[in-house]
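Hey all, sorry for the wall of text incoming. These are the two entities for the joint prediction.
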Amino acid sequence: MIKKIILILLVVTTISGNAQDKTSLGFFTDRDVYVSGETLLAKIYSPTDNASRIVYIDLVNSSGTRISGSSIEIKNNEANGFLQLPDSLSTGIYLLRAYSKNTVAKLKIIREIWISNRFNGLENTKQLKRISELQAIQEESTPKLNLEGIESSYSINSNVTANIKIDESLLKKIDGNLLVSVAQTNPSFGSVSYKWSSDQGKDGLTEKKGIILSGTITDKKTSAPASGATVYLTIPDSLPGFQHYQTQSDGRFYFQLEKYYGSVQAFIQCFGNTPAQRLKINMDELFAEPGNLPDFSQQPISEEFKNNITTYIDAVTFQKVFSQEKLKFQAPPKEKSKSYPYYGKPSNVVDPQLFIDLPNFTEISRELLPGVKYRNFNNEPTMQVMNAAARDYFNEMPLILIDGIPIRNLNVIKDMGTQDIKRIEICQSERYYGDLRFPGVVAIYTMKSDYSRIPDSDQFIRLKLDAIQLQAKLAEPEHSEPDIPDLRQTFYWNPSVEPHETLPVKFSTSSILGKFKIIVRGRLKNGTMVLAEKQFEVK
Amino acid sequence: MLFLAWSFTQIACGQEPSNPNLDAQKIKGVRQLPYPSYTGTPFLTSEWCPGKVEFPNGEISDTLFVRYSSFKDELVYYNKVAGAQINIDKASINGFEFIDADGRTRSFRKQYFDDYMKGDRFFEILSSGETTLLAFRKVGLITTPAYHDISGVLKNMAYDLNYQFYFYSPEKGYTLVRINQNSLLAKFEKASQRPIKKLLRKSRIKINGESGFIQAWKTIEKEGYKVIF
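and here's what came out:
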C-alpha cells in the first residue's frame, strides 16, 4: 500500500515538475523616466492561469494616492496598452501597478518610474526615493537571442536596420509574442518590476467577458442595503445599450461592459419596490485601492540624471507645442451581427420635422403618434400604448425612453414640442427583454441629445467611463515638415512581434542626443522571462 | 486516491458561482398570443422541451424550455419569472437545439432563404457536411369540410404539415428534394444514378420515410457522389 502511495506521489510530482509555470508574469514600459503630459507605453505578460479578460494599470504616487489608470484587454495572456500621464503631476517617483480584479489582493506587479513636472526643474531636488527590500521579477539574459547590425553610435535622423536572431532551440520554447523596443535610457535610473502582495482586502470577480461595473443600492433613510431594487444601466449610442439587475439582500449590482471601447457615457438608475421608496446608488471604484505601499529608501541624485531630465523636459515641451502625437489609435472591433434596439424593432417611426409645429407632447401624441394615448389631466400626465395584437390599449405605462434612457416621470416630456424631437419610435407590442416586461415602448430621440431633460437625483447617476482601452500603436515620425525637429525618445515599440528565426527591426533616430537601448523581451513556456539588449549612442 | 482528491480540488477551485443576473445576453421577444384552435398542431413538438439557444456573439443560453412553432417559423420559450410564453426575436439568435420526447437532439439553424418567400428561416439540420440536408418544418392552414372543434365551435380550417427538404451548399444555394428515391436520384448526374441505385440496394436501404432518406443520403455522400444544384 505504502509503495503504491509513493508511486502515485512520484507520478504527481513528475507531472507537476513538467508542467509550465502558469503564474509567471512581466510588466514593461517603453522607458523608466517620463515628463508629465507624456504617454507611457506598457506591455504586460499576464499569468496564463488567470481567466480575466481585463488587466488594469494605474499610477500611484509615493504617498499612496491613485492618480490615473486604464483597463486593457488581455489577448493570449498578453496585454498591450498605454497610460496618459497627467500634466499636473509633481516631480518624483511614482508606482505603476498592473493587476486583474480577481487576483488583486494576492498579486500586483509594480514598477517604479520617474516623472518630472514640465514646469518644475530639479534644481532643489537632492535625493530620490527608491523601492527597497523587495524581490524583483527576474529576467534572464540569453545568448540564444541575438541582436545583429547595431552599431555603437549613429548620427541624428538616420535610418537603422537591425536583425533579431533567435536560436532554433529557444524558438520552440517561446510562449506568445516578443516585445521589441528602442528607446532612450537613463543609466542613473534603471527600473525593474516587483511582485507585490501585502495589500489587505478581497479579490474581486473574474472579468472573463469584460469590465464589471459594480455598486450597492442603499435605502436613503436607513442606509441599509436595498433588496429587490431594479437597477438599469444605459449606454446611449445609435443603438442604446441596456442592462438590468435585480439586487439581492446585500444590495449589490453588477454590469458587464464587454463590447465597449474607449470613453463611454453611461447612466445608472435604480427603482425601489414601491414608488415611495427612496434609494441611493453607491458606485464601486473601478480601480483597486492603493493599499499598502512597499518601503522606500532615499538615494542621492546624480548630476547626469539632472542634466538628462532638463533635456527630456525641453523635448516634451517642444512636442506639446507642435502637437506631435505619440500614438496612432485603431478603430474598435465592429459587431458583425445585424443589430436592433433592445426594445425591439419599432412598429412606427415618426419624424416630427415632416409635420406642422406642435407646442407640446399632448398635441404631438394626438396628431402624430399612432396608437399612443398621452393625457395631461390636472397636471398628472399618463401614457398608454396600443397592443396591436390584442387590438386594445395596455393598462400600464409603456417603457418611455429619452435618447435611450428610461424615464418614469412623464412631466419630463410634457413640454417637448416638435422642435425638440428628432424622431419617435413606437413598439405596439408586449415586449420582453430577459425578465423585464415592456407594455409597449415609446422611444424619443431629441435634437440636442444632451440628456439635460433628465433630472439628477440619488437614483440617477451619470458616468463617464473609461471602458476597454482602444488599441494603439506608436505613431510613425512625420517628415512632411522638415523645419520641425523630431524629438522622439522612443524610436520603436512593437509589443506583438511573432517569434521567427530572423526578425528585421527598422527604425530611425531622432534629433535627441544620448544613450539608447534596443531591447527584446519574451516569455518562455516554462515561465522564464528572457531578454537581450544592446546599447548605442546618438551623437 | 490522493491524485483524484487533488484533481477534484483543482476543478472546484477553478469554478465561480454563476449569477443569472450577470447574463448580459438577455433574450429579446414578444408575448406569444394563442394560435387559432384547429385540427392538427401548429407546433413541432406537443410538449415543452429542454433546449439551448445560440446568440450572434456565440454565447449559449442552455436553461430554457422551448417549443418550435412550425406555423409561424418562430421559437417560443417559457419565461418562469414573467409567467409568459415569449416568441424569441428571430434576429436575436443564430439557431437553437432541443431534446424531443424521444430523446433525440434536434438542431435548427437560422439561414437566409433566397427563393420564393425570401427571408431568414429556421432549418432543421438533418445531415451536415459539404452539402447539408435541411428540413423546413412548415405547417400551413388548409380549408377542410366543416367540423365542430372540442368546444363545439364550427370550423373549416386545419393545420397541415407541409415539410420541405433541401440540399444546401453555401456556394451553390438550395435545391428542393422530395422524400423518395426518384427525387433523390434526380439530384445526381445521369451516369451516377445507376451506381447509386446499386449502392442503395447493396446497403439494403429503402427510402420510405425521413430516416431512410437521411441514411441513403449519408451512404451516397460517403461514396463521394456530388449533388447537382
